[in-house]
Recover the amino acids of this structure.
């Protein structure tokens, strides 16, 4: 397995240098779009879908649009090697599906702030697996940025009124499963991006995740809700593509040119983006701790970009 990771994770040459410089920007774009996900999620839930159906509608909508787009523009991007199906199962079922399912379960069992903090244990998992499978260097710079971003996430979401439900251990394990599932995309996606275009990786991720999510979402009930709210579905589809499919495309593109551990830390800006969207759109307020948390996350991103020449020499060695 380890050799497979190393073979497929090598980026292509040519546009490699400018894309290495732009890769953090792509991750940042993905995190901002993910941060806006709450907007469309609230919209979809208000239609009458339950938690599992909301996830299924969003994932399936994005999958259908991506399939149609590739059928019209470039059908060759729908071709994959059968032996790589295991990696796509990793991104689709192991990551996107498990992440959504476990996160929804955590939200139901505990407070939203606890769920978010457990979700953002993902960079810890990514860093460990990146060292094992990709031989990435575990630097002081990365460790400092990781802990700073995690502390920032805790401060941004706030844990003053947090609760973990009746069975804290089970809630903790489910929440960590969400974080672990989230982290798997940075690992399996890195493998696949050494061989496929970002659209190919994203579309098969969503196809597999949509199949799994529909199986547990009472599709007949979903169909009735969709039929009775047809006028609201265009916004649902467009919103799902913008806040779910597009950020995965951006993130997948970046994974070809940036270390997985760095990408996962930069992606923690999603928490900041979500908070800022809440302030602008829903008139939510930020206290001093929230503001300090935002500063911590931004500081972590700055730390990751320090001394880029040395970082690049290390990566090429």
């Amino acid at each position: 397995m380890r050799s497979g990771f190393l073979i497929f994770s090598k980026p292509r040459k040519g546009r490699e240098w400018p894309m290495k410089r732009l890769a953090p920007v792509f991750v940042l774009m993905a995190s901002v779009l993910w941060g806006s996900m709450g907007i469309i999620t609230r919209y979809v839930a208000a239609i009458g879908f339950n938690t599992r159906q909301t996830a299924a509608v969003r994932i399936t909508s994005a999958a259908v649009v991506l399939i149609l787009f590739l059928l019209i523009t470039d059908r060759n991007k729908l071709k994959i090697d059968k032996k790589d199906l295991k990696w796509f199962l990793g991104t689709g079922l192991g990551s996107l599906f498990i992440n959504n399912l476990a996160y929804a379960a955590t939200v139901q069992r505990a407070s939203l702030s606890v769920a978010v903090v457990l979700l953002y244990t993902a960079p810890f998992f990514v860093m460990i697996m990146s060292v094992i499978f990709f031989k990435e260097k575990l630097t002081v710079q990365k460790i400092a940025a990781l802990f700073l971003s995690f502390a920032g996430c805790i401060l941004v979401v706030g844990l003053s009124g947090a609760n973990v439900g009746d069975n804290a251990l089970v809630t903790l394990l489910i929440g960590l499963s969400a974080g672990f599932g989230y982290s798997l995309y940075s690992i399996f996606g890195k493998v696949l991006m050494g061989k496929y275009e970002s659209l190919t990786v994203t579309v098969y991720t969503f196809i597999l995740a949509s199949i799994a999510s529909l199986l547990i979402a009472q599709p007949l009930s979903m169909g009735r809700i969709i039929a009775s709210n047809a006028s609201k579905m265009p916004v649902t589809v467009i919103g799902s593509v913008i806040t779910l499919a597009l950020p995965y495309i951006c993130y997948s593109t970046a994974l070809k040119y940036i270390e997985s551990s760095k990408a996962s830390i930069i992606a923690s800006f999603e928490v900041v983006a979500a908070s800022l969207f809440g302030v602008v759109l829903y008139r939510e307020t930020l206290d001093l701790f929230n503001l300090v948390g935002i500063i911590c996350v931004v500081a972590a991103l700055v730390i990751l970009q320090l001394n880029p020449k040395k970082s690049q020499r290390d990566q090429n060695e």
